[in-house]
Amino acid sequence: MMENKKLLKKESQIFFGGMFFLFAVFMWRQFYGFNKNDEIFYISTVYRFFQGDAMLVDEWNNVQLFAFITYPLYCVIRLFHNSNEGIVLIFRIAYLIFQAAAASYCYWRLKRFGWIRILPAFFYFLTTPYNINSLSYNTLALGFVLLTLVTLSGLDHLKVMDSILCGIFTAGAVLANPYAVILFIIYGFICAGISFYNYKKRRALIPALSFQHYLWMGLGAFLIFVLFVLFVFSRGSLKEILDGFSYIVMDSERQKSFWEKFAKYFIRIHRYYRVLVYITGILIVLWFADKNKKISSSVYLAAEIFTAVPYIIYYGFFWDMVGINYMLVPLAFPGIISYMVSEEKDKRLFFGWYVPGLFYTLLAHFATNTGILTVSASYMLVSAASILLIWKAIEEQGKTAGFRFLACILLTVQLVACVYQRIVYVWGDASLPHLTYRLREGPLKGIYTSEENDSLYKDVLQDMKELCFTSKDRLFVVGIAPWMYLNTEAECAAYSTWETLETDPLIRIYYEIHPEKLPTVIYCYGYKEEILETEFAYEFINMGYQPVSMRRGIVLTHR
Fold first, then answer.
1. Distances (CA, A) of 334 to 289, 306, 375, 455, 548
2. N or C: at which end does the chain have fewer Cβ atoms within 10 angstroms?
3. Residue 288 and residue 311: Cα distance in Å, rounded?
4. For 70-85, what is each residue's pLDDT tens digit?
């Protein structure tokens, strides 16, 4: 007993010591990189709700529900920091804390796996989609799905509070990615079917698959749903929500047929991991064909590892375009081979984490228009489970030092590649060595960027100072510069702070439904005077708007 306590204490010291070191490194890294688009869109969305806009009424972007999760955080920040000065850096630190808390939760809940639980917890902490360190619909969805799967597959006995907590995590995942509700529904049917079967056969119920557990889980999700409904209807009526609903769900990518989206998922995986797909398929066929099991299990694992490692190295160290996402997929393939060859199969881990995680990658594909980028990022869920499956197979099959060493090479390469990408890769800015200009005011205060972005940022801030915005103004940014909304107390006068082009047909519809949202200032970011010759400009000029040329665009004012 005493020896077990000492071992557990040593494991915890290694985990928390490693977490402290990584947290310090990533905290330093948070100060670098000016992401002009995605990252600041996440914050500008919640900011407009803080200003009083109604969710699903004033905002029409179809990913807006995630802001219900970040809204309380933003309110707390503003209690102690009464402006958006440096808000981007503050949100980056908040995301790092969220990741550290989720990783620690994983370590705590996966106790039954022994010391190896350290690796999937680290693996999650080392990864983040696109290396965008912010609380977004991507990072929140992955975090909450992971927490749910870890709770279901890690615990031997589920208490009522564990079930309710799973429901809360599930609700968070659904708010970040509504497609995640399909996982919850399928899980409910499985629980109902298995519970009924076990009742008829008078067998003991499996806690994680009992319908009673599912009902408690539903209660946890319902608590979040009630809070969400209260928040939404405190600012908008059912009629107002329904009036804008058809425009909220308007998206050309999601209008493609089910079968086209379904097929593209496999086509994209095949395109980027062709050899790995073929080798895995061949190994699975060989395993089932070899009924007498003349081929050693270690041969299957070694072949899969030899195939996966080059992919991790290539995407982790030599692929220039978002390698931090692409490198997460290869580790998932050895996981299925490991489960296949294991004599004592951990069904709870495989069917309670690996398979649902794999299914979620398909749901992520249906929910996005970014194809393989979001799909590969969501493979973090599958690969984290794969680490545990691989190590279980190693304990059974890796009796020789050489094979165990080979598996350690696989996991080491993966984790080192994650650290490298997390530090080096910069989304939306110059490479890390060129980020030497520190921004000293505005929402990105404290962040280092390139000379080009430093000049751009200062020009736009100066433009906005000269426009003398007040809280009575309504700002509409044409183009893609969501950070401009954060730099003013003016009300957001667009249907979304994301990219809105002058040709967008929703602009006219939005102002027909919300005439009170007509802007006092329209900043056409990055545009030249040619925009004044467009139908968009003519319409506003005829309404009395005055055009003026500024440092980084054309501005139309009506005050």
1. 19, 10, 18, 48, 60
2. N
3. 26
4. 999 999 999 999 899 9
